[in-house]
């Protein structure tokens, strides 16, 4: 839904991972594992925000769709191509999630625009993201932690920039993030350390 990159919660530390890095999945896995330790035994909901009506804004629903086709053990996924979480239904979906899970730990996933050098990177940080800020929409903040995928350059006519974002980039980023989250799902983040964090990664892109 195009969260505004970097303008909110400026004092919070954010970590960046480029989807083109050879060890991008391992980096995302390590960062997310560290963040999820704060969840303890709370149910973890991955809320993938966006719409397939805009190429750049389809990152979230693509990630949700890929994850929903996998045998997840711990993560609950909301927001797919067939059942998206977007500006119109965001408040309703958040209420639904709160009702379905007792005090859930929410990981918000959304596309955003940013600097040229950051395009193709994921930005991970504590606290909520603000969906719709990049296209001047007032929507509720979402997430205990957030993952922003920077899909294009900000600054001018951002709605049209999202519409003209390359599908190849968005698909590649969705593959990387969904694979990372799949591996996280197989881990026990309630423990201080997990041996599985350092085991070799089996590529599952063909399955998702």
UniProtKB/TrEMBL annotation:
Name recorded for this polypeptide: Spore protease YyaC
UniProt xrefs under NCBIfam families: spore_YyaC (TIGR02841)
Domain of life the protein comes from: Bacteria
Keyword Nucleotide-binding: no
Entry keywords, A to Z: Hydrolase, Protease
Alphabetical GO biological process terms: proteolysis
One GO molecular-function entry: peptidase activity
């Amino acid at each position: 839904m195009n969260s505004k990159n970097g303008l909110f919660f400026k004092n919070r530390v954010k970590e960046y991972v480029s989807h083109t890095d050879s060890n991008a999945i391992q980096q995302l896995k390590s960062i997310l594992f560290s963040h999820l330790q704060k969840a303890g035994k709370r149910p973890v909901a991955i809320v993938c925000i966006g719409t397939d009506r805009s190429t750049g804004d389809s990152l979230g629903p693509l990630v949700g769709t890929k994850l929903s086709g996998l045998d997840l053990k711990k993560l609950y996924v909301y927001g797919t191509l067939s059942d998206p979480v977007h500006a119109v239904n965001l408040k309703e979906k958040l209420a639904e999630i709160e009702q379905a899970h007792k005090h859930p730990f929410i990981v918000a996933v959304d596309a955003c625009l940013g600097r040229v050098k950051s395009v193709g990177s994921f930005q991970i940080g504590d606290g909520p993201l603000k969906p719709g800020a990049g296209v001047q929409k007032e929507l509720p903040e979402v997430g205990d932690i957030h993952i922003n995928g920077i899909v294009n350059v900000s600054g001018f006519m951002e709605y049209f920039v999202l519409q003209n974002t390359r599908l190849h980039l968005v698909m590649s980023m969705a593959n990387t993030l969904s694979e990372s989250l799949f591996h996280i799902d197989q881990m026990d983040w309630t423990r201080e350390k997990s041996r599985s964090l350092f085991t070799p990664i089996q590529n599952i892109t063909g399955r998702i």
